[in-house]
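hey
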């Protein structure tokens, strides 16, 4: 049980880090639209996310790269 609690805290810290860097809308969209944003296997559904964000796949990939850059020290 303690491991789950620690994992949850770590995830919340990572989410907060993205929100603090200006990616709150992206985080909200991904968390609030699980059925459209993720596949049944839990992977990101790129076309579904692009429809939700009203963007092109290349733009979404650039957003993901920026998020990865922000979180790179944590992984």
């Amino acid at each position: 049980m303690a491991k789950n609690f620690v994992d949850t805290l770590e995830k919340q810290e990572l989410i907060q880090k993205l929100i603090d860097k200006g990616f709150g809308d992206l985080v909200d969209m991904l968390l609030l639209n699980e059925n459209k944003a993720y596949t049944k296997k839990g992977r990101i559904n790129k076309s579904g996310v692009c429809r939700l964000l009203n963007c092109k796949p290349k733009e979404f990939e650039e957003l993901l790269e920026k998020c990865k850059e922000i979180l790179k020290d944590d992984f």
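Helices lie at 2-32, 34-37, 46-53, 57-71. The radius of gyration is 13 Å.
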